[in-house]
């Protein structure tokens, strides 16, 4: 009886073992074929470029001249192309840094290593091959962009393929299955547009872009294959590419997997926010009109005249440069960049959308209140030489100071309620120091009166206070921390169960 049932059981066990082994072998073979094909394609293209193959040479130069002739006459199109090409330039480095930070916060170290290794490899390959090939960039009739170094292969095409491809593979498990095809298509379109933008700007030939894609595909294939071998050594199954690198990490990769409703009564809160916005605008308009046109003979009017003049009389070349840098800390680009980075890190750490919504509404409200009140009050700039020219808005209130106050105050409010770590006090320091730096620079550059600073402070206090009461951004802060700790403990228990001592 025992002997009769043993053979079928052994056969079934061998079958169950053989199936994943066969799947792994087939997929690995197909992956190697794809890597080799991309490498061979790159090698053939390199040889054709090196030996100046006639048809390819004519195609490269013909497309470069035709596209340049069209693009040079469309300034609006050029702005779009420059924005797209920036997504494949320095911006992708910040994207990688932010993605790695998120993965480390979520304790997915293996995936963070994959992203870093893939990116560093692309960073090393580009200048090395460019130096070996030594191909000059296109020469077009109307240069619309400039790029240093050699041409072959396109570093933007190579880097965008590797960076956005690796991030797609990492975060794909967090995307619902019905949306995965659309997300893959979107990333492929982005990579294609970055390559096309380099041709449109006249800094690369068609063959440069194709070579960048082929080399990127080959390198990403190598890192992907190495990652799969890593999983195999730990006896983990090999997922299909449409499942991403680690399907079991899906929950950790989702932005807020267990959050309850962001707003309990969205229509009520929306109405309260809209009414509050109107009231804050009314307060700003009233104070702005008084300070700008009806405060003669008051201490505030004296300061509005004396402070800008004092700063203008003490200008030096060195301070002019420093004031320019300090003023940039409150401009739109800096505020937007800090907001995006902080929002991503908050979402990674606390897995809640409510504080992100709070920050977004604070900054959107600040911008709209500033623009509306500046247009309504229409206050002239101080009567001193201005170091910034052709500004599109009036003096009251200071947009730079208001944006800085709102941003860093909001950051401090969110962080202080969510952690007991010593570094939380740094956000309070920043909420005080950063606005002072920006305000001083704006006074120095002759762009604002002291009452413009008071208007920015009024905007911040009323608007941030209103949203804090209505949205309650830290209502579930304690619950989120407790839930996060329990998840880490549960993950540790599962890890011990898989690999007992």
Automatic annotation (TrEMBL):
<dbReference type="InterPro" id="IPR036938">
    <property type="entry name" value="PAP2/HPO_sf"/>
</dbReference>
<feature type="transmembrane region" description="Helical">
    <location>
        <begin position="357"/>
        <end position="377"/>
    </location>
</feature>
<feature type="transmembrane region" description="Helical">
    <location>
        <begin position="24"/>
        <end position="49"/>
    </location>
</feature>
<protein>
    <recommendedName>
        <fullName>Phosphatidic acid phosphatase type 2/haloperoxidase domain-containing protein</fullName>
    </recommendedName>
</protein>
<keyword id="KW-1133">Transmembrane helix</keyword>
<feature type="transmembrane region" description="Helical">
    <location>
        <begin position="153"/>
        <end position="175"/>
    </location>
</feature>
<feature type="transmembrane region" description="Helical">
    <location>
        <begin position="273"/>
        <end position="293"/>
    </location>
</feature>
<feature type="transmembrane region" description="Helical">
    <location>
        <begin position="112"/>
        <end position="133"/>
    </location>
</feature>
<dbReference type="InterPro" id="IPR000326">
    <property type="entry name" value="PAP2/HPO"/>
</dbReference>
<feature type="transmembrane region" description="Helical">
    <location>
        <begin position="397"/>
        <end position="415"/>
    </location>
</feature>
<feature type="domain" description="Phosphatidic acid phosphatase type 2/haloperoxidase">
    <location>
        <begin position="356"/>
        <end position="468"/>
    </location>
</feature>
<keyword id="KW-0472">Membrane</keyword>
<feature type="transmembrane region" description="Helical">
    <location>
        <begin position="332"/>
        <end position="350"/>
    </location>
</feature>
<feature type="transmembrane region" description="Helical">
    <location>
        <begin position="87"/>
        <end position="105"/>
    </location>
</feature>
<feature type="transmembrane region" description="Helical">
    <location>
        <begin position="209"/>
        <end position="227"/>
    </location>
</feature>
<feature type="transmembrane region" description="Helical">
    <location>
        <begin position="453"/>
        <end position="471"/>
    </location>
</feature>
<dbReference type="Pfam" id="PF01569">
    <property type="entry name" value="PAP2"/>
</dbReference>
<feature type="domain" description="Phosphatidic acid phosphatase type 2/haloperoxidase">
    <location>
        <begin position="109"/>
        <end position="224"/>
    </location>
</feature>
<feature type="transmembrane region" description="Helical">
    <location>
        <begin position="422"/>
        <end position="441"/>
    </location>
</feature>
<feature type="transmembrane region" description="Helical">
    <location>
        <begin position="182"/>
        <end position="203"/>
    </location>
</feature>
<keyword id="KW-0812">Transmembrane</keyword>
